[in-house]
Design brief:
By secondary structure, this protein is α/β, with parallel strands linked by helices. The protein has 2 domains: 6-218, Alpha-Beta Complex (2-enoyl-CoA Hydratase, Chain A, domain 1); 222-297, Lyase 2-enoyl-coa Hydratase, Chain  A, domain 2. Helices cover 43% and strands 16% of the residues. It has 11 helices and 11 strands. The chain has helices at residues 36-51, 93-113, 129-136, 163-171, 173-181, 188-194, 206-218, 222-235, 240-254, 258-269, 277-280, and strands spanning 6-7, 11-16, 20-25, 57-62, 66-69, 117-122, 125-127, 139-143, 147-149, 185-187, 199-201. Strands 1-2-3-4-6-8-11 form a 7-stranded mixed β-sheet, with helices on both faces. A 4-stranded mixed β-sheet has the order 5-7-9-10. Helix 1 (36-51) links the parallel strand 3 (20-25) and strand 4. It is globular. The N and C termini lie far apart (44 Å).
Length: 298
């Protein structure tokens, strides 16, 4: 099933050329705080996105003054546009465990499992669950007025959707401990200094800068980029020898794809490569053209 544009529970979708899916959280009256139904719709959308070749890049952002300000503690339910209401599961300890594993944690897992590159355009409050989703994305661009943090201890709660693991990946153990234990919420500039976001931009240029990055990435060689994303995510958990074997196996595929032939031909001809012929209906370079490893000798 192809990804459709329109309204889901708690967010809207739109598709920009070439193949950029923009997901906009649209509950500004509650700072885009999430419900169980919103998370379920997100997981379903991301599943469709993974299977839809037309989608190359996914951008997340929010309406109003928030990106995604955690969970809606007053309304765990909510009606899904796609399917009936789902129970949040927090009625007893077993329900909390099931709710986290099946719903809340599934969102960040789905983002990380996407082969397509994801970008968080952080326009305001990115707190708790929203902060973790931003950290799960491959790129983060924040507006200067953005506010980012876990701060679960302010409510006596834990970063239960995987926020602690994600923050350790970005800051290391010592800085992540300081950040979470002291309940820090930082602005865009400070987040950039800490290494939590890749760029910080003026509020009114956030989406322009985000879509500029999205188009740059969307025009790159999609198969190789998706394999590289997976290789990067695996690298932290692999030994040196395992990582060498893993990247060699992927290279045995990518070196023999039309995009690799196009990249080599473009280098020889001193022009910009035109990748992704398989996505755009163009005729790919013939497989008897120059191989990537031959480019330096021409």
């Amino acid at each position: 099933m192809s990804v459709r544009e329109g309204e889901y529970c708690g967010f809207l979708t739109a598709i920009e050329e070439p193949g950029i899916l923009v997901v906009t959280f649209n509950r500004p009256e509650s700072l885009n705080a999430s419900t169980a139904a919103m998370k379920r719709d997100l997981v379903e959308l991301l599943t469709q996105t993974q299977m839809d070749d037309a989608i190359r890049i996914v951008v997340f952002t929010g309406q109003g003054s928030a990106f995604w300000a955690g969970d809606d503690l007053k309304g765990y339910g909510g009606d899904s546009v796609q399917v009936p209401q789902i129970h949040h599961g927090h009625h007893n300890p077993s329900g909390t465990y099931n709710g986290l594993r099946t719903i809340s944690q599934a969102v960040n897992t789905a983002v990380r499992n996407l082969d397509k590159i994801s970008i968080a355009a952080i326009n305001g409050f990115a707190i708790q669950t929203g902060f973790s989703l931003a950290l799960a994305c491959d790129f983060r661009i924040a507006s200067r007025s953005a506010k980012l943090g876990s701060a679960t201890l302010r409510f006596g709660l834990l970063p239960d959707e995987g926020g602690q693991w994600l923050l350790v990946q970005h800051l290391g153990v010592a800085k992540a401990t300081d950040f979470m234990m002291r309940k820090r919420i930082v602005d865009g500039e400070t987040a950039h200094e800490l290494g939590l976001v890749h760029e910080v931009v003026a509020d009114d240029s956030l989406m322009d800068e985000t879509l500029l990055l999205a188009r740059e990435l969307a025009n790159g060689p999609q198969v190789a980029m998706r394999m590289l994303k997976r290789s990067i995510l695996l690298a932290a958990d692999l030994t040196w020898d395992q990582s060498l074997d893993e990247i060699a196996a992927k290279t045995a595929v990518t070196d023999h794809l039309p995009d690799a032939r196009e990249g080599a031909a473009a280098f020889i001809e001193k022009r910009q490569p035109q990748f992704n012929g398989w996505l755009e209906g163009r005729v790919d370079p013939p497989m008897d053209g120059p191989a990537p490893w031959e480019a330096d000798s021409k």
